[in-house]
Write a structure and sequence with these properties.
single chain; 217 residues; alpha+beta; 5-stranded antiparallel β-sheet; 6 helices
Length: 217
């Protein structure tokens, strides 16, 4: 039943695309179309730069929704561009680019048709986008420790960040908790930040502690 519903939605979407391209004749004038196209490519460039900065160097903007809103802007403008951009502001490559972009929902639907793996991939990606933080365990003006949803098959991931202006740097935690963390506290020393974590599966009062360089110094 679930697969039948996915196929039905995909066919309805494809039919809607066909009808819109055939009968929807309204477009922006040339100047708004240029602004709309620049907005899409600017948001796409920012998403790529932020992804490179985070995955290669562990740096990103502070705030849980900045990157996600940029991605939403990029996807939304890309999906609608093929219908509302004036033909005069698009070259042949851009027309094919936006036409292919409008097929992204079909690709997501195709993933859902993969037994087990497709559903896990889509639900995990959707969960990471809609729920950036499971719990804020500690946060002050310099340091943040959170748990984050990473997938439907795994436990929340413990992550630590150091703040620096509008930026924050992800800190590598030298251990991995398979269970929830009960308590986190932070001590600032001369040139380092000492983060102590008490997992829920530890019965004794001893916590796991690690130190990181202090960016504020």
């Amino acid at each position: 039943m679930g697969y039948f519903l996915v196929v039905l939605i995909m066919l309805a979407y494809l039919g809607g695309l066909h009808l819109l391209r055939k009968h929807f004749k309204w477009t922006f004038s040339e100047q708004p179309s240029r602004l709309f196209k620049r907005l899409h490519f600017a948001s796409l460039l920012l998403c790529c730069l932020l992804s490179l900065s985070y995955f290669q160097y562990d740096w990103g903007f502070q705030g849980y929704w900045v990157g996600r809103l940029l991605l939403l802007l990029c996807v939304a403008t890309g999906l609608f561009a093929t219908f509302i951009l004036h033909p005069a502001v698009q070259d042949r490559v851009e027309k094919w680019y936006f036409r292919i972009f409008s097929w992204i929902p079909v690709g997501v639907g195709g993933l859902l048709l993969l037994p087990f793996l497709g559903i896990v991939m889509v639900l995990s990606g959707l969960g990471q986008w809609t729920s950036p933080v499971e719990e804020v365990l500690f946060e002050d003006q310099h340091t943040k420790v959170i748990t984050r949803f990473i997938g439907v098959l795994g436990p929340p991931h413990l992550e630590a960040y150091q703040k620096w202006g509008i930026w924050e740097k992800a800190v590598e935690i030298p251990f991995y908790f398979q269970h929830e963390v009960d308590h986190v506290w932070v001590d600032y020393e001369a040139d380092s930040v000492v983060i102590s974590c008490l997992p829920s599966y530890i019965d004794s009062a001893e916590a796991t502690t690690f130190a990181i360089p202090y960016l504020g110094k």
